[in-house]
Amino acid sequence: MSPILAISGLSKQFGGVTALAGVDLTIEEGEILGVVGPNGSGKTTLFNVVTGVHKPSGGTVLFRRRDITGLAPHAISRTGIGYTFQQAMAFAGLGVLENVQIASEHARATGGANPWPTPQALLDFVGLSALAGEKAGVLPFGSLRLLGLALALATRPSLLLLDEPAAGLNDRETTALVGLVRQLPGHGITVCVIDHDMKLMQMLCRRLAVLDFGSKIADGPTEAVLADPKVLDVYLGGEL
Amino acid sequence: MNDSRRAGLKPLRSLLPVLVILALIAAVPLFSPSNRFLSLAISAGINVIALYGLSVLFGQTGILSMGHAALVGIGAYAAAILARDFGVGFWLALPAAAIASAVFAMIVGIPSLRVGGHHFVIMTFAFGQLLAIVLTNGGDYTGAATGLDVTDHVTLFGADMTDLTRYYLMVVAFVTVAAVASWAIIHSSYGRTLRAIRENEKLAASLGINVGRHKIGAFVVSGVFAGISGVLLAYFLGHISPSQFSSFPSIYLALMVMIGGARLIEGPLAGGILVAFLPEVLNLDPVQSRIVYGVCLIAVIMLLPDGLIGGIVRALRGLFSGKPKSERDAAEARQ
After folding, report:
1. Domain count for chain A
2. Which of B218, B230, B177, B256 is nearest to B69 (CA)?
3. Which of A93, A111, A148, B69 would be B249's cystine partner, CB 3.0–4.6 Å?
Protein backbone atom coordinates (compact mmCIF):
# COMPACT_ATOMS: atom_id res chain seq x y z
CA MET A 1 0.00 0.00 0.00
CA SER A 2 1.31 3.44 -0.84
CA PRO A 3 1.91 5.84 2.04
CA ILE A 4 -0.68 8.56 2.75
CA LEU A 5 2.08 11.16 2.99
CA ALA A 6 5.51 10.89 1.37
CA ILE A 7 8.08 13.55 2.24
CA SER A 8 11.31 13.39 0.30
CA GLY A 9 14.43 15.53 0.51
CA LEU A 10 12.53 18.27 2.33
CA SER A 11 14.76 21.16 3.32
CA LYS A 12 14.24 24.61 4.76
CA GLN A 13 16.75 27.37 5.29
CA PHE A 14 16.10 30.53 7.28
CA GLY A 15 18.84 32.82 6.02
CA GLY A 16 22.01 30.92 6.82
CA VAL A 17 20.34 28.61 9.31
CA THR A 18 19.38 25.15 8.11
CA ALA A 19 16.24 24.08 9.94
CA LEU A 20 15.57 21.02 7.77
CA ALA A 21 18.38 19.32 5.89
CA GLY A 22 16.75 17.00 3.40
CA VAL A 23 14.27 14.95 5.43
CA ASP A 24 12.70 11.78 4.01
CA LEU A 25 9.66 10.52 5.87
CA THR A 26 6.60 8.47 4.98
CA ILE A 27 3.38 8.15 6.90
CA GLU A 28 1.46 4.93 6.30
CA GLU A 29 -2.31 4.81 6.01
CA GLY A 30 -3.98 4.11 9.35
CA GLU A 31 -0.98 4.44 11.65
CA ILE A 32 -0.13 6.80 14.49
CA LEU A 33 3.38 8.01 13.76
CA GLY A 34 5.43 9.96 16.26
CA VAL A 35 8.03 12.51 15.20
CA VAL A 36 10.32 13.33 18.10
CA GLY A 37 13.49 15.28 18.67
CA PRO A 38 14.93 17.77 21.12
CA ASN A 39 14.06 21.48 20.93
CA GLY A 40 15.44 23.04 17.77
CA SER A 41 15.67 19.73 15.94
CA GLY A 42 13.32 20.92 13.19
CA LYS A 43 10.06 19.28 14.32
CA THR A 44 7.96 22.41 14.16
CA THR A 45 9.63 23.55 10.94
CA LEU A 46 8.73 20.19 9.41
CA PHE A 47 5.16 20.71 10.57
CA ASN A 48 5.08 24.27 9.22
CA VAL A 49 6.48 23.31 5.82
CA VAL A 50 4.07 20.39 5.39
CA THR A 51 1.07 22.52 6.38
CA GLY A 52 2.08 25.37 4.08
CA VAL A 53 2.91 27.95 6.73
CA HIS A 54 6.47 28.08 5.34
CA LYS A 55 7.54 27.43 1.77
CA PRO A 56 10.20 24.70 1.60
CA SER A 57 13.66 25.50 0.21
CA GLY A 58 13.73 22.11 -1.52
CA GLY A 59 12.15 18.68 -1.66
CA THR A 60 8.60 17.45 -2.20
CA VAL A 61 5.56 16.50 -0.17
CA LEU A 62 3.16 14.03 -1.75
CA PHE A 63 -0.26 13.49 -0.18
CA ARG A 64 -1.83 10.37 -1.68
CA ARG A 65 0.54 10.73 -4.64
CA ARG A 66 -0.57 14.31 -5.22
CA ASP A 67 2.15 16.96 -5.04
CA ILE A 68 1.13 19.48 -2.38
CA THR A 69 4.57 21.07 -1.91
CA GLY A 70 4.29 24.77 -1.18
CA LEU A 71 0.48 25.03 -1.34
CA ALA A 72 -1.17 27.70 0.83
CA PRO A 73 -2.32 26.56 4.30
CA HIS A 74 -6.03 26.67 3.45
CA ALA A 75 -5.41 24.67 0.27
CA ILE A 76 -3.47 22.02 2.22
CA SER A 77 -6.36 21.77 4.65
CA ARG A 78 -8.77 21.30 1.75
CA THR A 79 -6.82 18.32 0.41
CA GLY A 80 -7.68 16.45 3.60
CA ILE A 81 -4.81 17.22 5.96
CA GLY A 82 -6.01 18.53 9.30
CA TYR A 83 -3.62 20.09 11.76
CA THR A 84 -3.55 21.64 15.21
CA PHE A 85 -1.19 24.28 16.52
CA GLN A 86 0.65 24.49 19.81
CA GLN A 87 -0.62 27.98 20.48
CA ALA A 88 -3.58 28.91 18.29
CA MET A 89 -6.09 26.33 19.43
CA ALA A 90 -9.48 28.00 19.11
CA PHE A 91 -11.21 31.30 18.30
CA ALA A 92 -11.12 32.78 21.79
CA GLY A 93 -13.80 35.43 21.28
CA LEU A 94 -16.38 33.04 19.83
CA GLY A 95 -18.60 30.43 21.45
CA VAL A 96 -17.41 26.83 21.79
CA LEU A 97 -20.18 25.51 19.56
CA GLU A 98 -19.66 28.34 17.05
CA ASN A 99 -15.98 27.40 16.87
CA VAL A 100 -16.81 23.86 15.77
CA GLN A 101 -19.64 25.11 13.55
CA ILE A 102 -17.20 27.30 11.62
CA ALA A 103 -14.81 24.40 11.12
CA SER A 104 -17.65 22.10 9.98
CA GLU A 105 -18.92 24.68 7.51
CA HIS A 106 -15.57 24.58 5.77
CA ALA A 107 -15.23 20.82 5.84
CA ARG A 108 -14.43 19.27 2.51
CA ALA A 109 -16.90 16.91 0.91
CA THR A 110 -15.71 13.33 1.24
CA GLY A 111 -17.38 10.15 0.12
CA GLY A 112 -16.89 8.31 3.38
CA ALA A 113 -19.25 8.10 6.34
CA ASN A 114 -18.82 10.95 8.79
CA PRO A 115 -18.22 9.63 12.30
CA TRP A 116 -19.30 13.01 13.73
CA PRO A 117 -22.05 14.39 11.50
CA THR A 118 -22.82 17.46 13.61
CA PRO A 119 -20.76 19.98 15.62
CA GLN A 120 -22.60 18.69 18.68
CA ALA A 121 -21.43 15.14 17.95
CA LEU A 122 -17.84 16.35 17.79
CA LEU A 123 -18.19 18.15 21.11
CA ASP A 124 -19.59 14.93 22.55
CA PHE A 125 -16.59 13.01 21.20
CA VAL A 126 -14.03 15.31 22.83
CA GLY A 127 -16.16 15.65 25.95
CA LEU A 128 -16.95 19.35 25.76
CA SER A 129 -20.74 19.24 25.26
CA ALA A 130 -21.34 20.71 28.68
CA LEU A 131 -19.32 23.78 27.70
CA ALA A 132 -20.98 24.30 24.28
CA GLY A 133 -22.52 27.62 25.32
CA GLU A 134 -19.35 29.13 26.80
CA LYS A 135 -16.94 31.44 25.08
CA ALA A 136 -13.82 29.56 24.04
CA GLY A 137 -11.65 32.19 25.73
CA VAL A 138 -12.89 31.26 29.22
CA LEU A 139 -12.13 27.55 28.84
CA PRO A 140 -9.38 25.99 30.94
CA PHE A 141 -6.26 25.13 28.99
CA GLY A 142 -6.92 21.41 28.80
CA SER A 143 -10.40 21.93 27.37
CA LEU A 144 -9.01 24.43 24.87
CA ARG A 145 -6.64 21.73 23.58
CA LEU A 146 -9.56 19.35 23.14
CA LEU A 147 -11.52 22.08 21.33
CA GLY A 148 -8.53 22.53 19.01
CA LEU A 149 -8.67 18.81 18.26
CA ALA A 150 -12.41 19.06 17.58
CA LEU A 151 -11.83 21.94 15.14
CA ALA A 152 -9.25 19.95 13.19
CA LEU A 153 -11.51 16.89 13.11
CA ALA A 154 -14.45 18.99 11.92
CA THR A 155 -12.63 19.65 8.64
CA ARG A 156 -12.93 15.87 7.98
CA PRO A 157 -9.25 15.13 7.49
CA SER A 158 -7.85 11.79 6.41
CA LEU A 159 -4.49 12.75 7.89
CA LEU A 160 -4.21 14.66 11.15
CA LEU A 161 -0.98 16.37 12.20
CA LEU A 162 -0.74 17.27 15.88
CA ASP A 163 1.97 19.68 17.00
CA GLU A 164 2.74 19.08 20.70
CA PRO A 165 -0.87 18.18 21.50
CA ALA A 166 -0.14 17.46 25.16
CA ALA A 167 1.94 20.54 25.93
CA GLY A 168 0.60 22.16 29.08
CA LEU A 169 -1.74 19.28 29.93
CA ASN A 170 -1.72 17.48 33.27
CA ASP A 171 -1.53 13.66 33.46
CA ARG A 172 -5.28 13.17 33.60
CA GLU A 173 -5.85 15.44 30.59
CA THR A 174 -3.01 13.77 28.68
CA THR A 175 -4.56 10.34 29.30
CA ALA A 176 -7.91 11.62 28.03
CA LEU A 177 -6.27 13.04 24.91
CA VAL A 178 -4.37 9.80 24.25
CA GLY A 179 -7.67 7.91 24.56
CA LEU A 180 -9.22 10.11 21.89
CA VAL A 181 -6.29 10.08 19.47
CA ARG A 182 -6.06 6.27 19.65
CA GLN A 183 -9.62 6.01 18.36
CA LEU A 184 -8.88 8.07 15.25
CA PRO A 185 -7.36 5.35 13.01
CA GLY A 186 -10.56 3.36 13.62
CA HIS A 187 -12.45 6.28 12.02
CA GLY A 188 -10.15 6.25 8.98
CA ILE A 189 -7.91 9.06 10.19
CA THR A 190 -4.14 8.61 10.05
CA VAL A 191 -2.28 10.53 12.75
CA CYS A 192 1.17 12.06 12.97
CA VAL A 193 2.13 13.45 16.39
CA ILE A 194 5.04 15.85 16.69
CA ASP A 195 6.34 16.16 20.24
CA HIS A 196 9.38 15.75 22.44
CA ASP A 197 7.46 14.10 25.25
CA MET A 198 8.66 10.47 25.14
CA LYS A 199 6.08 9.30 27.65
CA LEU A 200 3.29 10.52 25.40
CA MET A 201 4.92 8.96 22.35
CA GLN A 202 5.26 5.59 24.05
CA MET A 203 1.57 5.66 24.89
CA LEU A 204 0.48 6.65 21.39
CA CYS A 205 2.82 5.45 18.69
CA ARG A 206 4.03 2.09 17.42
CA ARG A 207 6.45 3.83 15.10
CA LEU A 208 8.78 6.74 15.79
CA ALA A 209 10.94 8.97 13.65
CA VAL A 210 13.63 11.01 15.37
CA LEU A 211 14.91 14.36 14.14
CA ASP A 212 18.12 16.04 15.22
CA PHE A 213 19.61 19.19 13.71
CA GLY A 214 17.16 19.05 10.82
CA SER A 215 17.96 15.45 9.80
CA LYS A 216 16.22 12.19 10.49
CA ILE A 217 18.52 10.01 12.62
CA ALA A 218 16.20 7.10 13.34
CA ASP A 219 12.92 5.68 12.06
CA GLY A 220 11.27 2.41 13.09
CA PRO A 221 9.22 0.58 15.71
CA THR A 222 9.04 2.57 18.94
CA GLU A 223 10.89 -0.04 21.05
CA ALA A 224 13.76 -0.31 18.57
CA VAL A 225 14.10 3.45 18.16
CA LEU A 226 14.17 4.01 21.92
CA ALA A 227 16.98 1.46 22.23
CA ASP A 228 19.01 3.06 19.42
CA PRO A 229 22.31 4.42 20.80
CA LYS A 230 22.12 7.44 18.45
CA VAL A 231 18.71 8.37 19.86
CA LEU A 232 19.85 7.81 23.44
CA ASP A 233 22.79 10.07 22.76
CA VAL A 234 20.52 12.86 21.53
CA TYR A 235 18.44 12.54 24.67
CA LEU A 236 21.48 12.83 26.99
CA GLY A 237 22.23 9.31 27.97
CA GLY A 238 18.73 7.97 27.54
CA GLU A 239 16.75 9.34 30.43
CA LEU A 240 13.47 8.27 28.93
CA MET B 1 -34.54 19.57 20.61
CA ASN B 2 -35.94 22.51 22.51
CA ASP B 3 -32.46 24.01 22.64
CA SER B 4 -31.93 23.89 18.91
CA ARG B 5 -35.30 25.48 18.25
CA ARG B 6 -34.45 28.27 20.63
CA ALA B 7 -31.10 28.69 18.89
CA GLY B 8 -32.95 29.08 15.60
CA LEU B 9 -35.11 31.88 17.00
CA LYS B 10 -32.30 33.70 18.72
CA PRO B 11 -31.01 35.50 15.60
CA LEU B 12 -34.54 36.79 14.87
CA ARG B 13 -34.82 38.08 18.42
CA SER B 14 -31.70 40.18 17.87
CA LEU B 15 -33.22 41.81 14.79
CA LEU B 16 -36.46 42.76 16.50
CA PRO B 17 -35.19 45.66 18.67
CA VAL B 18 -33.63 47.33 15.63
CA LEU B 19 -36.82 46.99 13.62
CA VAL B 20 -38.84 48.46 16.49
CA ILE B 21 -36.44 51.39 16.80
CA LEU B 22 -36.53 51.98 13.04
CA ALA B 23 -40.33 51.87 13.08
CA LEU B 24 -40.32 54.55 15.78
CA ILE B 25 -37.84 56.60 13.75
CA ALA B 26 -40.11 56.30 10.72
CA ALA B 27 -42.97 57.70 12.79
CA VAL B 28 -41.06 60.89 13.63
CA PRO B 29 -42.64 62.98 10.79
CA LEU B 30 -46.01 62.54 12.56
CA PHE B 31 -44.74 64.97 15.19
CA SER B 32 -44.04 67.62 12.51
CA PRO B 33 -40.31 68.04 13.20
CA SER B 34 -38.41 71.07 11.95
CA ASN B 35 -36.67 70.99 8.57
CA ARG B 36 -33.35 71.27 10.35
CA PHE B 37 -34.11 68.18 12.38
CA LEU B 38 -35.12 66.26 9.26
CA SER B 39 -31.97 67.32 7.40
CA LEU B 40 -29.76 66.21 10.27
CA ALA B 41 -31.65 62.94 10.52
CA ILE B 42 -31.28 62.31 6.78
CA SER B 43 -27.53 62.93 6.96
CA ALA B 44 -27.30 60.62 9.97
CA GLY B 45 -29.28 57.94 8.14
CA ILE B 46 -27.07 58.17 5.07
CA ASN B 47 -24.04 57.73 7.33
CA VAL B 48 -25.65 54.80 9.10
CA ILE B 49 -25.95 52.94 5.78
CA ALA B 50 -22.20 53.31 5.23
CA LEU B 51 -21.61 52.38 8.89
CA TYR B 52 -23.42 49.08 8.42
CA GLY B 53 -20.92 48.28 5.68
CA LEU B 54 -18.03 49.44 7.84
CA SER B 55 -19.26 47.22 10.66
CA VAL B 56 -19.01 44.16 8.40
CA LEU B 57 -15.40 45.09 7.75
CA PHE B 58 -14.40 46.26 11.22
CA GLY B 59 -16.81 44.49 13.55
CA GLN B 60 -16.93 41.11 11.85
CA THR B 61 -13.64 40.84 9.96
CA GLY B 62 -11.56 43.00 12.30
CA ILE B 63 -10.14 45.30 9.63
CA LEU B 64 -10.31 49.00 10.40
CA SER B 65 -10.61 51.36 7.45
CA MET B 66 -9.85 55.04 7.93
CA GLY B 67 -10.65 55.74 4.30
CA HIS B 68 -14.25 54.72 4.18
CA ALA B 69 -15.63 58.14 3.26
CA ALA B 70 -13.63 57.85 0.05
CA LEU B 71 -15.74 54.83 -0.91
CA VAL B 72 -18.88 56.85 -0.16
CA GLY B 73 -17.36 59.54 -2.38
CA ILE B 74 -16.88 57.09 -5.25
CA GLY B 75 -20.59 56.32 -5.04
CA ALA B 76 -21.57 59.99 -4.87
CA TYR B 77 -19.35 61.02 -7.80
CA ALA B 78 -20.47 57.99 -9.81
CA ALA B 79 -24.08 59.10 -9.35
CA ALA B 80 -23.28 62.72 -10.27
CA ILE B 81 -21.25 61.83 -13.37
CA LEU B 82 -23.79 59.23 -14.54
CA ALA B 83 -26.56 61.82 -14.26
CA ARG B 84 -24.55 64.51 -16.04
CA ASP B 85 -23.01 62.50 -18.88
CA PHE B 86 -25.49 59.71 -19.46
CA GLY B 87 -28.73 61.02 -18.04
CA VAL B 88 -28.85 58.06 -15.65
CA GLY B 89 -31.32 58.65 -12.82
CA PHE B 90 -31.28 57.76 -9.14
CA TRP B 91 -32.55 54.19 -9.30
CA LEU B 92 -30.12 53.06 -11.99
CA ALA B 93 -27.29 54.97 -10.33
CA LEU B 94 -27.76 52.90 -7.17
CA PRO B 95 -26.51 49.56 -8.55
CA ALA B 96 -23.94 51.27 -10.79
CA ALA B 97 -22.46 53.28 -7.92
CA ALA B 98 -22.56 50.24 -5.64
CA ILE B 99 -20.48 48.34 -8.20
CA ALA B 100 -18.05 51.25 -8.65
CA SER B 101 -17.51 51.56 -4.90
CA ALA B 102 -17.17 47.80 -4.54
CA VAL B 103 -14.44 47.74 -7.21
CA PHE B 104 -12.54 50.53 -5.47
CA ALA B 105 -13.06 48.81 -2.12
CA MET B 106 -11.48 45.71 -3.59
CA ILE B 107 -8.46 47.73 -4.69
CA VAL B 108 -8.13 49.29 -1.22
CA GLY B 109 -8.45 45.83 0.27
CA ILE B 110 -5.68 44.18 -1.72
CA PRO B 111 -2.82 45.58 0.43
CA SER B 112 -4.52 44.06 3.50
CA LEU B 113 -3.28 40.69 2.27
CA ARG B 114 0.32 41.71 2.95
CA VAL B 115 0.03 44.58 5.43
CA GLY B 116 -1.79 44.26 8.71
CA GLY B 117 -2.73 46.21 11.81
CA HIS B 118 -1.79 49.86 12.18
CA HIS B 119 0.15 49.92 8.95
CA PHE B 120 -2.92 49.03 6.99
CA VAL B 121 -5.03 51.62 8.81
CA ILE B 122 -2.53 54.26 7.70
CA MET B 123 -2.77 53.00 4.11
CA THR B 124 -6.56 53.35 4.11
CA PHE B 125 -6.14 56.86 5.53
CA ALA B 126 -3.79 57.70 2.68
CA PHE B 127 -6.29 56.32 0.18
CA GLY B 128 -8.93 58.75 1.44
CA GLN B 129 -6.57 61.67 1.09
CA LEU B 130 -5.45 60.48 -2.33
CA LEU B 131 -9.01 60.34 -3.63
CA ALA B 132 -9.65 63.90 -2.46
CA ILE B 133 -6.52 65.03 -4.32
CA VAL B 134 -7.53 63.19 -7.49
CA LEU B 135 -11.04 64.68 -7.38
CA THR B 136 -9.66 68.17 -6.76
CA ASN B 137 -7.36 67.88 -9.76
CA GLY B 138 -9.86 66.15 -12.03
CA GLY B 139 -10.63 69.32 -14.02
CA ASP B 140 -14.12 69.69 -15.45
CA TYR B 141 -14.74 65.98 -15.26
CA THR B 142 -14.88 65.97 -11.44
CA GLY B 143 -15.58 69.67 -11.09
CA ALA B 144 -12.23 70.22 -9.33
CA ALA B 145 -12.40 71.74 -5.84
CA THR B 146 -15.90 73.11 -6.45
CA GLY B 147 -17.32 69.67 -7.07
CA LEU B 148 -20.40 68.66 -9.01
CA ASP B 149 -24.09 69.48 -8.93
CA VAL B 150 -26.78 66.85 -8.95
CA THR B 151 -29.97 68.52 -10.08
CA ASP B 152 -32.07 65.46 -10.87
CA HIS B 153 -35.01 64.66 -8.66
CA VAL B 154 -35.64 61.25 -7.18
CA THR B 155 -39.00 59.85 -8.17
CA LEU B 156 -40.63 56.73 -6.81
CA PHE B 157 -43.76 55.36 -8.54
CA GLY B 158 -44.20 58.76 -10.16
CA ALA B 159 -43.99 60.60 -6.84
CA ASP B 160 -41.30 63.26 -6.39
CA MET B 161 -39.23 62.31 -3.34
CA THR B 162 -37.39 65.64 -3.07
CA ASP B 163 -39.66 66.81 -0.27
CA LEU B 164 -37.73 66.48 3.00
CA THR B 165 -40.24 64.24 4.75
CA ARG B 166 -40.44 61.90 1.80
CA TYR B 167 -36.67 61.75 1.42
CA TYR B 168 -36.43 61.09 5.16
CA LEU B 169 -38.80 58.14 4.91
CA MET B 170 -36.91 56.80 1.91
CA VAL B 171 -33.61 56.99 3.79
CA VAL B 172 -35.19 55.22 6.77
CA ALA B 173 -36.26 52.45 4.35
CA PHE B 174 -32.70 52.19 3.03
CA VAL B 175 -31.33 52.09 6.58
CA THR B 176 -33.75 49.27 7.33
CA VAL B 177 -32.54 47.30 4.31
CA ALA B 178 -28.92 47.92 5.35
CA ALA B 179 -29.64 46.81 8.92
CA VAL B 180 -31.39 43.64 7.77
CA ALA B 181 -28.59 42.88 5.29
CA SER B 182 -26.00 43.38 8.01
CA TRP B 183 -28.01 41.19 10.38
CA ALA B 184 -28.25 38.48 7.71
CA ILE B 185 -24.49 38.58 7.23
CA ILE B 186 -23.78 38.41 10.98
CA HIS B 187 -25.95 35.33 11.41
CA SER B 188 -24.88 33.48 8.27
CA SER B 189 -22.07 31.04 7.79
CA TYR B 190 -20.38 33.85 5.86
CA GLY B 191 -20.46 36.04 8.97
CA ARG B 192 -19.00 33.23 11.06
CA THR B 193 -16.20 32.85 8.51
CA LEU B 194 -15.40 36.56 8.78
CA ARG B 195 -15.37 36.36 12.57
CA ALA B 196 -13.02 33.39 12.42
CA ILE B 197 -10.62 35.55 10.39
CA ARG B 198 -11.01 38.40 12.89
CA GLU B 199 -10.19 36.07 15.78
CA ASN B 200 -7.24 34.23 14.30
CA GLU B 201 -6.16 34.22 10.65
CA LYS B 202 -3.72 31.35 11.05
CA LEU B 203 -6.27 29.06 12.67
CA ALA B 204 -8.90 30.09 10.12
CA ALA B 205 -6.59 29.11 7.26
CA SER B 206 -5.88 25.77 8.93
CA LEU B 207 -9.60 25.01 8.70
CA GLY B 208 -9.59 25.56 4.94
CA ILE B 209 -10.74 29.19 4.95
CA ASN B 210 -9.20 31.24 2.15
CA VAL B 211 -8.37 34.21 4.38
CA GLY B 212 -7.22 36.53 1.59
CA ARG B 213 -10.27 36.03 -0.57
CA HIS B 214 -12.65 36.61 2.32
CA LYS B 215 -10.84 39.77 3.44
CA ILE B 216 -11.18 41.23 -0.04
CA GLY B 217 -14.78 40.01 -0.07
CA ALA B 218 -15.50 41.92 3.15
CA PHE B 219 -14.13 45.05 1.49
CA VAL B 220 -16.38 44.52 -1.51
CA VAL B 221 -19.43 44.07 0.73
CA SER B 222 -18.63 47.24 2.67
CA GLY B 223 -18.07 49.02 -0.65
CA VAL B 224 -21.61 48.19 -1.79
CA PHE B 225 -23.05 49.81 1.35
CA ALA B 226 -20.75 52.82 0.87
CA GLY B 227 -21.75 53.25 -2.78
CA ILE B 228 -25.46 53.28 -1.98
CA SER B 229 -24.83 55.72 0.85
CA GLY B 230 -22.96 57.95 -1.62
CA VAL B 231 -25.83 58.04 -4.13
CA LEU B 232 -28.31 58.98 -1.39
CA LEU B 233 -25.94 61.71 -0.24
CA ALA B 234 -25.40 63.17 -3.72
CA TYR B 235 -29.14 63.35 -4.41
CA PHE B 236 -29.88 64.73 -0.96
CA LEU B 237 -27.31 67.53 -0.98
CA GLY B 238 -27.59 68.32 -4.68
CA HIS B 239 -23.94 69.25 -4.62
CA ILE B 240 -20.80 67.25 -3.76
CA SER B 241 -17.19 68.30 -3.37
CA PRO B 242 -13.88 66.50 -2.65
CA SER B 243 -13.46 67.67 0.95
CA GLN B 244 -16.60 65.75 1.94
CA PHE B 245 -14.83 62.48 1.24
CA SER B 246 -11.28 63.14 2.44
CA SER B 247 -9.66 61.65 5.50
CA PHE B 248 -11.49 63.59 8.17
CA PRO B 249 -14.97 62.45 7.19
CA SER B 250 -13.46 58.95 7.15
CA ILE B 251 -12.26 59.38 10.69
CA TYR B 252 -15.76 60.48 11.67
CA LEU B 253 -17.19 57.29 10.18
CA ALA B 254 -14.66 55.18 12.08
CA LEU B 255 -15.46 57.18 15.22
CA MET B 256 -19.20 56.60 14.81
CA VAL B 257 -18.81 52.86 14.37
CA MET B 258 -16.48 52.65 17.37
CA ILE B 259 -18.70 54.74 19.61
CA GLY B 260 -21.80 52.79 18.68
CA GLY B 261 -20.07 49.42 18.68
CA ALA B 262 -19.21 47.54 15.52
CA ARG B 263 -20.16 43.99 16.41
CA LEU B 264 -23.80 44.31 17.35
CA ILE B 265 -26.51 45.27 14.93
CA GLU B 266 -27.68 48.26 17.02
CA GLY B 267 -24.16 49.72 17.03
CA PRO B 268 -23.98 51.55 13.69
CA LEU B 269 -27.46 52.98 14.20
CA ALA B 270 -26.61 54.28 17.67
CA GLY B 271 -23.21 55.62 16.60
CA GLY B 272 -24.56 57.43 13.54
CA ILE B 273 -27.44 59.07 15.41
CA LEU B 274 -25.36 59.97 18.45
CA VAL B 275 -22.56 61.67 16.56
CA ALA B 276 -25.02 63.56 14.33
CA PHE B 277 -27.21 64.87 17.14
CA LEU B 278 -24.74 65.32 19.98
CA PRO B 279 -23.63 68.84 18.93
CA GLU B 280 -27.29 69.76 18.39
CA VAL B 281 -28.46 68.50 21.76
CA LEU B 282 -25.53 69.95 23.71
CA ASN B 283 -25.51 73.10 21.60
CA LEU B 284 -21.84 72.83 20.63
CA ASP B 285 -19.98 74.72 17.93
CA PRO B 286 -17.86 72.65 15.48
CA VAL B 287 -14.63 73.08 17.46
CA GLN B 288 -16.28 72.12 20.73
CA SER B 289 -17.97 69.15 19.15
CA ARG B 290 -14.65 67.85 17.83
CA ILE B 291 -13.27 67.99 21.36
CA VAL B 292 -16.30 66.14 22.67
CA TYR B 293 -15.96 63.47 19.95
CA GLY B 294 -12.30 63.01 20.85
CA VAL B 295 -13.11 62.62 24.52
CA CYS B 296 -15.95 60.22 23.67
CA LEU B 297 -13.66 58.10 21.51
CA ILE B 298 -11.01 57.85 24.22
CA ALA B 299 -13.66 57.04 26.82
CA VAL B 300 -15.21 54.36 24.61
CA ILE B 301 -11.87 52.75 23.79
CA MET B 302 -10.85 52.66 27.44
CA LEU B 303 -14.16 51.86 29.14
CA LEU B 304 -16.40 50.24 26.53
CA PRO B 305 -14.25 48.32 24.05
CA ASP B 306 -17.41 46.92 22.40
CA GLY B 307 -18.84 50.41 21.95
CA LEU B 308 -21.79 52.00 23.68
CA ILE B 309 -24.28 49.30 22.69
CA GLY B 310 -21.88 46.53 23.61
CA GLY B 311 -21.41 48.19 27.00
CA ILE B 312 -25.14 48.51 27.61
CA VAL B 313 -25.75 44.88 26.65
CA ARG B 314 -22.97 43.77 28.96
CA ALA B 315 -24.30 45.88 31.83
CA LEU B 316 -27.81 44.46 31.35
CA ARG B 317 -26.49 40.91 31.20
CA GLY B 318 -24.53 41.53 34.38
CA LEU B 319 -27.62 42.91 36.08
CA PHE B 320 -29.73 39.86 35.28
CA SER B 321 -27.18 37.06 35.52
CA GLY B 322 -26.45 37.89 39.16
CA LYS B 323 -22.80 36.86 38.95
CA PRO B 324 -20.57 38.92 41.21
CA LYS B 325 -18.85 41.68 39.27
CA SER B 326 -15.31 40.48 39.98
CA GLU B 327 -16.07 37.06 38.50
CA ARG B 328 -17.51 38.65 35.37
CA ASP B 329 -14.48 40.85 34.98
CA ALA B 330 -12.19 37.85 35.29
CA ALA B 331 -14.14 36.10 32.56
CA GLU B 332 -13.94 39.16 30.33
CA ALA B 333 -10.24 39.57 31.00
CA ARG B 334 -9.52 36.04 29.87
CA GLN B 335 -11.06 36.78 26.50
Report:
1. 2
2. B230
3. B69
Regarding whether A239 and A202 lie in a shared domain, the answer is yes
Q: How confident is the model at residue A111 (pLDDT cuts 50, 70, 90)?
A: low
Query: Over the stretch B36-50, which tens digit does the pLDDT of each residue have?
Result: 999 999 999 999 999
Q: Are residues A73 and A114 in the same domain?
A: no
Domain that holds residue B47: 16-246
pLDDT in tens, A77-107: 999 999 999 887 899 999 999 999 999 999 8
> What ipTM did this prediction achieve?
0.91
**In B, which residues are within 8 Å of A89 by CB distance?**
203
Q: B194 to chain A, minimum CA–CA distance in Å?
A: 10
Closest C-alpha to B252, from B302, B220, B297 = B297
| Confidence grade of residue A234 (pLDDT, cut at 50, 70, 90) | confident
The closest CB to that of A78, out of B189, B198, B208, belongs to: B208
The verdict on A141 and A203 lying in the same domain is no
User: Does residue A121 surpass a pLDDT of 90?
Assistant: yes
Claim to verify: residue A120 and residue A194 sit in the same structural domain: no
Distance from CA of A89 to the nearest CA of B (A): 7
Contact pairs from chain A to chain B, CB under 8 Å: 83
Q: At what angle do helices B307-321 and B247-260 cross, to 10 degrees?
A: 10
Residues near A68 by beta carbon (within 8 Å), at least 6 away in sequence: A52, A61, A62, A75, A76, A79, A81
Query: Do the domain assignments include residue A181?
Result: no
Q: Is B334's CB within 8 Å of A137's CB?
A: yes
Same domain, A9 and A62: yes
Ramachandran angles phi, psi of B137, nearest 5°: -100, 15
Range of the domain at A63: 1-80+159-166+190-240
Average pLDDT over residues A21-32: 94
Nearest CA to B250 out of B117, B72, B55 is that of B72
Q: Is A159 within 8 Å of chain B by CB?
A: no
Is A2 contained in some domain? Answer: yes
pLDDT for the residue numbered B5: 43
Taking a C-beta distance cutoff of 8 angstroms, is the pair A97, A133 a contact? yes
- Residue A214 and residue A197 in one domain: yes
Q: Do A74 and B211 touch (CB under 8 A)?
A: yes
Express each pLDDT in B290-326 by its tens digit: 888 888 888 888 888 788 888 888 888 777 765 544 4
